[in-house]
Amino acid sequence: MKRLMLATAIRLMQEGGSPSVSEVAEAAEVSRATAYRYFPSQAAMIQAAVDEALGPILDWQPQDGDAEKRVADLFGFAYHRMQAYEATHRAALLLALDQWQRRQAGTLGAETRVVRGNRRGLLKTAIDPLQAQIGKAASERVTQALSLLFGIEAIIILKDIWGLEAKEAEKVASWAASALIRQALQEAGEGETPAEPGAGKTGTGGRKTRKKGA
């Protein structure tokens, strides 16, 4: 019964909706009492639907020892799946933004939060070999930067704002990811430490001087 509910929720979201538990129950021809027993709130249902849509992405494991190749493999594997369930991920993002707004207004109450953070573990796994080359702090910075390129937010920017097709969006994201990794390796090779925002001394012409490594 739970699988039927999830499949129905995903189908309705893929059709462009953001269904309530009651709407999914009606579409699945399940009683409301049964539906709410599995999913006590819309947020809980959408969270489960997103996890179902992500599916094999969450089980991804690298097959290479090179960080850049691992990231390219992850992007190629994940982008196809994310775009196949794009409407579902957009619905989850919409709910997460709505929850943020209600939390700011103090009206969210005890509603289950939509948790969005699977990319953190996936990206850390992908670039794990990089840490030995550039250090822990720089590796963390690269992971944070890559998170801007991986997920529904990046897909929305590339498709809605730039008008790219799915394959082109994936290519741009993968290219940018490779550029980030190569830049991090270059900085490590030159013994440079990227300055923290607002840090560093002001030199001639108002430019901040970079610290050199030992």
From TrEMBL:
Q: Disordered: where is this region?
A: 187-214
What protein am I looking at? AcrR family transcriptional regulator
* Amino acid composition bias (Low complexity), ranges on this chain: 187-199
Keywords per UniProt: DNA-binding
Output the Gene Ontology terms for molecular function. DNA binding
Q: In this protein, which residues make up the domain named HTH tetR-type?
A: 1-57
* Annotated region of DNA binding: 20-39
